[in-house]
Amino acid sequence: xxxxxxxxxxxxxxxxxxPDPMAAQDGADSCIACHEMLSxxxxxxxxxxxxDVHMEAGFGCAACHGGDPTIQGPxxxxxxKGYIGRPSPGQVPDVCGRCHSNASFMRQxxxxxxxxxxxxxxxxxxxxxxLGAADTAVATCASCxxxxxxxxxxxxxxxxxxxxxxxxxxxxxxxxxxxEPYGIPTDQGAEYRRSIHWETMSEGGDTSAPTCNxxxxxxxxxxxxxxxxxxxxxxxxxxxxxxxxxxxxxETFTMLGVPGCAACHQNHDVQPAHDEMLGVGxxxxxxxxxxxxxxxxxxxxxxxxxxxxLRLALDTARTVLLDAEDSGMEVSEALVSLNxxxxxxxxxxxxxxxxxxxxxxxxxxxxxxISEEALARGHAALRDLQVRRMGLAVSVIIIGALIxxxxxxxxxxxxxx
Length: 417
Ligand code: HEC
Ligand code: HEC
Ligand code: HEC
Ligand code: HEC
Ligand code: HEC
Ligand code: HEC
Ligand code: HEC
Ligand code: HEC
Ligand code: HEC
Prior knowledge:
By secondary structure, this protein is mainly α. It contains 22 helices and no strands. The N and C termini lie far apart (136 Å). Residues 1-26 have low confidence and may be disordered.
């Protein structure tokens, strides 16, 4: 019941109370002046706050804690002046939402900032457990954003910077003691750290790869539902998601409760794809459900044969052309044409997601034509080379014979008669 009132209270504060403009006044802030001299948990917030985005925007401690910073001495912390002390987890969304859900107030500072964080949060597993079941083990605003050193996500020091998000979520989700009551796995972080996504981000420095919040949402943190796991991955892998969405599998997987892309690629431990995943062999993902003898299995093998065929044809053409080039033949144009062949291979790997042999064949065929032409060009160049070598050999023999003849002639002339 108390939580209910909390939510209603939150709505009221958001609509009625506009933030106290006094709170935005810096200067002789008694809260900071006194807490600065205190140690431990009472003093630390002051040091941390020096780099906080709210401090930079001119807010003081009272912006969140209430009280009156113009009063010197402990009377500054007067409940009659709105002082709330240390906000309980259940109070935190109200504290932050007081400003962050107030569009007209926020617009004065940064018109581009969204004002739906609290609204989203109350729909998340975190928010529902906190406000609905008074469960304080879940994340509140102040767990993902550290209460006194809040920074925008673009700042590398921020707990919600893409490179730091996994740490932030793992602080709870990889902690077996905290997760024990819920019976959910604690391996998401460890698995994610092995993935191509984390490698791309941490080693490649490419923050367009996903971290936890890109798939789970920032404030609506929930596991993606079965039917839209494909959409989550498809935000970035558009081509695969389009093929998959139109495929036989899409509907069937939803019906069977199979998690779309994650059924073949995992959700957290996503690894680079390879051709062995296709077919009915040991490393093939298709053999989870298909056998060599059923229609899906036969199709899987056919697709694999098409792709293997194109890869092999491109490799052969390249080897022959490089041989010719090493021998000084001009084949650069044919070598360049192989790039188009390579992109046909990439497209055919994407087209397997239609789970239809014809879709793969459609992408493979132009690639095969390119590789055949290139191979023909390579062979022609090697034949030319052969002819030139033959010509060279013949002229060497003729010149040799001429030299021998000349030498004999000279000896004959020089021989004393
Ligand atoms: C004259 C010194 C002084 C001033 C001024 C002062 N505080 Fe405190 N504050 C303390 C001391 C001492 C404590 C610990 C004892 C207590 O809880 O009353 C404390 C405790 C707190 C706590 C932790 C309460 C808890 O439940 O753990 C918060 C939050 C806080 N102060 C915020 C403020 C704010 C906001 C202001 C300004 C409006 C302020 N303080 C002004 C000395 C001060
Ligand atoms: C943006 C909101 C915000 C501002 C501004 C803010 N605090 Fe806090 N503060 C919190 C929240 C939220 C908590 C509860 C911490 C938690 O749940 O992790 C807290 C906790 C505290 C505590 C209790 C710490 C503990 O470990 O028991 C103290 C003391 C405190 N704040 C003092 C300050 C002082 C001093 C300032 C100004 C320098 C300040 N706060 C500014 C939000 C804020
Ligand atoms: C007194 C009003 C107020 C309160 C209370 C408040 N904020 Fe803010 N917050 C702001 C304003 C204004 C900005 C924008 C500052 C700027 O861009 O200059 C901001 C900025 C932020 C940002 C950075 C946004 C970005 O990406 O640029 C985050 C994150 C944030 N606040 C989180 C919180 C959290 C979490 C709490 C509660 C613990 C909280 N705020 C409490 C007013 C407030
Ligand atoms: C489960 C972790 C988590 C919780 C809980 C959380 N946030 Fe966030 N928040 C994030 C992440 C991650 C981002 C960064 C998003 C990005 O990369 O742009 C963010 C971004 C923000 C921003 C910047 C603007 C935006 O929407 O992107 C604000 C403001 C903010 N949060 C406020 C809040 C408030 C207020 C609450 C509590 C109602 C809260 N957050 C709860 C993780 C969280
Ligand atoms: C302060 C600890 C804490 C932090 C930080 C935290 N979580 Fe949670 N989270 C929990 C708890 C506790 C649950 C409740 C588990 C349950 O109900 O199954 C939960 C639930 C979830 C769930 C729903 C799980 C399910 O199937 O029931 C998801 C998804 C989730 N969190 C993702 C995240 C992400 C992503 C982040 C970081 C952006 C994050 N969490 C940060 C504690 C935390
Ligand atoms: C590439 C997208 C993606 C990323 C990145 C990601 N997740 Fe997930 N996560 C999912 C999907 C999809 C599911 C649901 C799978 C299912 O239903 O079988 C899930 C499920 C979960 C669950 C529910 C329990 C479980 O294990 O099934 C939690 C908790 C969770 N993720 C936390 C995290 C955390 C923490 C991170 C970052 C370290 C993270 N996730 C990164 C896609 C992602
Ligand atoms: C039924 C299994 C299956 C499903 C479902 C599936 N994939 Fe794939 N995916 C594969 C196989 C097999 C390959 C490897 C193809 C190859 O290299 O020959 C692959 C390759 C990939 C690649 C790498 C392509 C490349 O250029 O090498 C990406 C990215 C990818 N999938 C994303 C997705 C996304 C996103 C979804 C969901 C929309 C999805 N996959 C659904 C089986 C699947
Ligand atoms: C925020 C964007 C984003 C999201 C969301 C995302 N990915 Fe990725 N993914 C990337 C990037 C970036 C790479 C690395 C570069 C590349 O290979 O395209 C990658 C790589 C991959 C690869 C390896 C591709 C290869 O070349 O072998 C697979 C497979 C993959 N992702 C599958 C998934 C699946 C499955 C999901 C959903 C559970 C997903 N991705 C969600 C951006 C994303
Ligand atoms: C999670 C189980 C599962 C996995 C993994 C899976 N399939 Fe399927 N597949 C099915 C089911 C179930 C059907 C029957 C769908 C229908 O008839 O509507 C099917 C049907 C098909 C069909 C249509 C067959 C027909 O009747 O004409 C093709 C083609 C196919 N799958 C190819 C593949 C390929 C290729 C792979 C591996 C990349 C794969 N499947 C992986 C479950 C799976």
